[in-house]
Amino acid sequence: MNPEENGVRTIRVLDPATVNQIAAGEVVERPASVVKELVENAIDAGARTVRIDITSVQGGISAIRVTDDGSGMSPADAELAFAPHATSKITAIDDLFKIHTLGFRGEALASIAAVAKVTLVTKPRGSDTVAGTRLVVIGGVKKEKGETGAPEGTSILVEELFFNTPARKKFQKNLNTELARIHGLLEGIFLAYPQVSFRFSHNNREQLVTDRTTQPLDTIARIFGNDCARELVPVSSDLPFMRISGFISRPALSRKDHDRILISINDRYISSAAVMAAVKEGYGTLLPRDRFPVAFLSLAIDTRLVDVNVHPTKKEVRLSKEKEIGEAVREAVHAALMKNDLIPEVVVPRRQNRELDDAGIASARLSPGVAEPAAPYGADRGLTEAVTPAPNAESQSVFTEPTHTGTVSTDHRLRQTELASGVPPVTAAVPPLEVIGQVGGIYILAAAPDGELIIIDQHAAHERIFYEQVSRSMAARHAQELLVPAIIHRPPKDAAILRELVPVLAQEGVVIEDFGSGSFLVRAVPAVMGKIEGPELIDDLVSDLLSSDPAHSVSDRERITRIIACRSAIKAGTVCTLEQCQRIVNQLRATQSPFTCPHGRPTMVRFSRAKLDEMFKRT
Ligand code: ADP
Ligand code: MG
């Protein structure tokens, strides 16, 4: 009886072709994986110029060709290169920990050739003949070998990808998705190798081109444009086990995705959730929690701390000392931001700049920090789109006069943040600013040296000032008894949350007692909040606490600090005297991180002298 009829199967050793097809599945998932392996081989071969040409017909990729001017291969090596586990890059397992090449597993060419038709043309550098080697391998089987006229270097053409693995072929997404993947992949590789010239084209149309350079910023500008490059500040840090270099965006340039945080470790473009998170953390309160910076960082780490052999595609690496590495990245990012002037500049797009609108006013767009570009300048007749009318709105002047009682309470709040407070600030990145006036009780206008106009959001500014004071000084969190304890009532759901927060709140100086059935007695608030004029403020504070989303990454304490800062700060719509505005500005300049409020919104924007001249057509 045939044992297989009983469900018992005979064990067989698979033939090499099948083994290679299975292995190929790991390395060659899709067209982009082919591009990755071939380009990495070219880089490993010391190429100075690499061309990537993609051809598509009928909505599918029909050919991938990668051409380099690298070392090339001898006829014997050319053949060996297609054998599984054939590599010139390591000889033993120990070599993995001093690896400086992108490849080492010796399986890429074998895998690609197992599932496609591959034509290789190669000639070694310095060869004294015109002829190079031409080799055709289809589905893992050598079909042709011969000589052909060839330049030094290597050209590999991959056609009929997945011809013998229909399931994999069917799995491919549409052409545009595949091209987008290839594009994204190449961006990362091109950035990691500024010393190589790359040219990527699709159906003979150039898609992405870089020229070899010693200035990585040139490569960034080439790929992501000058507008992006202009918003970058350099990062550099030297530690015993690691060197960090690269560029990160000022907070004014942020994205809703982390897709432009590109990291390379030892010149290998990789994805590391830990390092990405560290970059974002380095921004602290400079960015809203749902925005991500742009960052191009290159880490040179002691190769003994990096295990590259985690996955066949080597996109992930395992880091020993991951925590220390993350910490160092966070600090380097933070330090780079602290060193630079981060006031976002108002952007006037060139196209609109040329046209005058109906009113004869040149249209401009404000690009205040993280916000999407605001409405055209001329359209809402000014900058104060979100202005709440000032209390004494009868005044026709744009510069409103403060009321006496308003002035007194504002003075009081300003004094709170002028109290001496421990650690001296480290930055002086904001130039001296001379206040010119206040608009609509919300924006402070100030002049900077060099004829710049700076517009400051007074609430955001004061919020930043309060926030830093509360977070660094115990004294500021010191509880201050209320003359009349405030009573607040909450529905059961809120009451439960609030009850849990009582001990944390007490540490921050907010002393609340649970009175049962949804009633709470507020006995004390942080001293920094100053004299509390009514229970509304406390009620608001508790509401903020209950409504702010505890699921996000910041701690309860951080959340409470931010709420206290927001609630204590001078409101938008509070008319201030010139002297008060100047005090806010001076205090802001003395903060460690003056450019954004604790939620990451900008505190100020600038019109540079050059921009103003441009807008008034003085250039
Ligand atoms: P690995 O890169 O892991 O060594 P591959 O299968 O990608 O394995 O390549 C096998 C070998 O073929 C390489 O080690 C290298 O010696 C040679 N090779 C592949 N591509 C090129 C190239 N473009 N130029 C020169 N040599 C190459
Ligand atoms: Mg390789």
- Tally of individual helices: 19
Radius of gyration: 31 Å
Report how far the terminal alpha carbons are from each other. 95 Å
Largest beta-sheet characterization: 8 strands, mixed
Low-confidence stretches: 351-396, 420-426
Question: Largest sheet, order of strands side by side?
Answer: 5-4-3-6-2-1-7-8
Helical proportion, percent range? 25-40%
The geometry reads as elongated
What is the total tally of β strands? 24
Structural class of the helix and strand makeup? alpha+beta
Task: Outline the structure in words.
Helix 2 runs parallel beside helix 6 and helix 13 packs across helix 18. With 619 residues, this protein is α+β, with helices and mostly antiparallel strands. The strands form six sheets. The chain has an eight-stranded mixed beta sheet. Strands 9-10-15-12-13 form a five-stranded mixed beta sheet, with helices on both faces. It contains 19 helices and 24 strands. It is elongated. The longest helix has 18 residues, at 175-192.
